[in-house]
Amino acid sequence: MKQYEKKRLRKKWLAVPLAVSIIAGCSHSETSNPENSSKDTINIMAPLLSPESPGSKSPSLKALETYTDENINVTWVPDSSYNDKFNIVMASGDLPQAIVIKDKSAGFIKSVKAGAFWELSPYLKDYKNLSQADEKIVNNSSVNGEVYGIYRSRDLIRACMIIRTDWLEKVGLDMPETLDDFYEVLKAFKEKDPDGNGKDDTYGMVVPKWLGLGNGSPWDILQIWFGAPNRYGIENGKLVPDFTTKEYMDALTFFKKLYDEGLINKDFAVMDSAKWNDPVVKGKAGVIVDTGSRASQIQSAMEESDESAKEIIDIIGTVEGPKGKKTFPTSGYSGMIAIPKSGVKTEKELKRVLTFLDKLNDKEAQILTNNGVEGRNYELKDGKFTSLEKNNKALLYEHEGLAQFSMSIPKSEYYIEEQKTKLFQHRKDIITAGEKIAVFNPAESLVSDVYTQKGAQLDNIILDARTQFIIGEIDEKGFRDAVRLWENSGGTELLKDLNKLYKASSK
């Protein structure tokens, strides 16, 4: 930020009182701002993940008001009760002008179908930043192709293989490049005493209990390596479930082989995901398939217990499978910001709110919401960013909550403290390479009434059958029987509904 701009902002921080309601799950409230009555007020409802919300004297929020030329009035709701609060607010009809939507919940979909939110597709092209939104992510966040919120961008590629390189060196293997290499690594980690204690007490990969399909579990990621679809594939122009394909069954057979040979933990079906890192940190297992952020957690935990454990953990994005290198993507977003019609009644007011949201994507606004104020929350020396918030949570809380309505469209432009570790660099490399080989879910945007009513029941049929097949309780015929049960329990009806929606959205 230029020096004269910083001086201008600092002067205005002193002159601009803040209008923020800090309401932990209570009703929406609006504060007046007589000293700044020339400004309009934007009312926002957002989840609070931090122990403290940005206070009424937060320099970051004051600076954001100055930059956007709006008074910003936030209703903070604890994240744990946010969806419940959303349903209450929707029922009351007393809505803000912008509201964070955490996911496409049944409550949100019901409100969309009732006409409670503005459909934004016709307007986005008119705004500098919003017009540059990623088309894939816009589609993923849409409801049957219609846009009812501005997505909050997240890394599209996070999936990777996390591996102990000290164990690789011990067993004399390189980083795996193919599925066969991957299997050989897991086998060596069990059989070749990688911890060097002379005991048969290690195994290859840790897998936790993971409820849900297509949401990034190790099984989801691994089946993509085998060339299986991401939830749904396309055959003859129609959607088909992943679990009906040959590639899925090939992956499932591989999982069973890992289980039968003791290359994964026998208790995977009940293992608490909160303890997922422990076997790797404690030297019982050598591989986890998850996200790059977990790799950093494991490396830090290992260094805490052993200062010499520097750069032991490394990652790769994927391996060569039958259909080449493929990777599992996220949906590219984490919730969205929607505009309720009861809070924004006219098209003129809608355009004002969209102008505000567009400004929040400017570099200056992204820095304020994600990093805070220069000279207070961080410093720049020769262009290098350094946080001033270490060991000072109060400074962090001044702006941390504001990131809940930061969208980062078309890209993230706030500061990230550069790290020189190979792990940090490899995470960046995986993101870049993965975007070219990601396998997307073609039904991501489709919202079926059948799934809303029966989705949990249908998913559980396949989840149970997958686990039963891996541990040997059923064979391939038993799995096919489970698929027929899925079809007869509403799956056939679901596919019919989804394909109708898919055909309509394709047009």
Automatic annotation (TrEMBL):
- Signal sequence segment: 1-29
Gene3D superfamilies reported in the protein's UniProt record: Periplasmic binding protein-like II (3.40.190.10)
Q: Which InterPro entries match?
A: Bact_solute-bd_prot1, SBP
Transmembrane intervals: none
Per its record, how is this protein called by name?
Answer: Lipoprotein
Q: Which UniProt keywords apply?
A: Cell membrane, Lipoprotein, Membrane, Palmitate, Signal
A Pfam family it matches: SBP_bac_1
The organism encoding this protein is Bacillus atrophaeus (strain 1942)
Q: Does the keyword Lipoprotein apply?
A: yes
Task: Name the domain of life.
Answer: Bacteria
Keyword Oxidoreductase in record: no
